[in-house]
Amino acid sequence: MSLLKKMRFTTVIILFFSLSSFANNSVNTELMADFVVIEKFRRNLSLYKNNKLIKVYNISLGGSPFGHKSKEGDSRTPEGRYKINYKKSDSRFHLALQISYPNKSDRATALKAGNSPGGSIMIHGLGPEYDWVGRLHALVDWTDGCIAVTNEEIEEIFKLVPQGTEIWILQ
Question: pTM value?
Fold first, then answer.
């Protein structure tokens, strides 16, 4: 093999390993989010650090997405200011981040109307039986009130959003 061919071969090998390493580690964990915004109308989840946008994801919402969640079973995604309570690595939807819904106001409003406010509102991936759907899941609002992204996306979000991060869910 000539020197030129050896150099080309070596360059291709180096590029291959560099790119495959980059693809597997494309999330820069130094950019840990300090704020999350959900825009229900736009179907977007946005991560911010120091008021600078890190990344935007397309989402699916509850089957009746508009209006604030008022009771258990209404298939609505809540609206308001919350926090990420905890990170759930054993979710049936791949990975999940639990949102602090219901807050004190949510509970009081639901109880005043004689309802349970519901709970377990999460940002989550897709179940293993639907992983193949990928980004197409965002064409339909299918959750019971949660915010859904692809499994690949929830893996990124899971790394970038620490427990306790503030989240605003907007109409």
Answer: 0.81
SS3 label, residue 52: strand
Residue 12 has pLDDT above 50, yes or no: no
Q: Are 115 and 70 in contact (CB under 8 A)?
A: yes
The Cα–Cα gap between 32 and 48 comes to 8
In the predicted structure, residue 40 carries a pLDDT above the cut 80:
yes
Judge contact between 60 and 148, C-beta under 8 A. Answer: yes
All structural domains of the chain, each given as residue ranges with its CATH number in brackets, are 31-170 (2.40.440.10)
Centre a 10 Å sphere on the Cβ of residue 147 and count the other Cβ atoms it contains.
29
> Which distant-in-sequence residues (6+ apart) come within 8 Å of 52 by Cβ?
none
Q: Residue for token digits 């409003």?
A: 109
The set of catalytic residues is 124, 146
Residue 27 has what pLDDT? 60
Query: What is the pLDDT, as a whole number, of residue 2?
Result: 52
Q: Is the pLDDT of residue 17 over 50?
A: no
* 41 half-sphere exposure, CB direction, 13 A CA radius: 3
